[in-house]
Amino acid sequence: MTMKVKSILVSQPKPQVDNSPYYEIEKRNKIKIDFRPFIQVVGVDAKEVRLQKIDFAKATAVIFTSRNAIDHFFRLAEELRFTVPDSMKYFCESEAIAFYLQKYIVYRKRKIYIGEKMFADMLPLFKKHKDESFLLPASDVLKSDVPTLLNSLNLDWQLATLFRTVSSDLSDLQEVKYDILVFFTPSGIKSLFENFPEFVQDQTRIAVFGKSTVQTAKDMGLRVDIEVPTPKTPSMTMALDKYVKEVNKTK
What we know:
By secondary structure, this protein is an alpha/beta fold.
């Protein structure tokens, strides 16, 4: 018999908006939802960038796939005493990432090119600007299709590992039990076992987002109970709400 769900731990920061779907699930189903990042981002220093033989001055365009990439690019530009020229072109994976650039540049005075959502959506943009020298600021965990796609266009590009994803210290959760653990990245799964190497799943349900996260969970011996996205539940909150209603028999 499947046990009812009374508590959920989401391995992400707590939402800063009052209308988050998680809060609605919590209220509607009368359960407890906690948030705790299982991973954190740590920036590399200027010395390490030099060891990578990365030359910011060579770049005429920068490719941004995350807000973290933007933060660490401009942080290291300052540390390296590199003045980002006004002529620099910016290629952003999504509109949200592009808007985040306003933290560092006068948005309307720069050449900014925006993809629709996925990295592959930017390929037509790259084709139109094949003569640029691209810099790709990224973490140590880079999707394998990114270099493949860039190389397929024979672009002049260099990878700059400017930050790393490391496991958070979760030692204070040693004695805390949750009915569902929610993961969004393979790094989050690995953090679980780094913090709790003797973790036994037992009745704990595991919810995961994305194929690579699912595969990592299975490789680590976990039983995946909630897999997202699916045609019926494209988001994690939709999947959690559906699952909790079914096992708790709530309306």
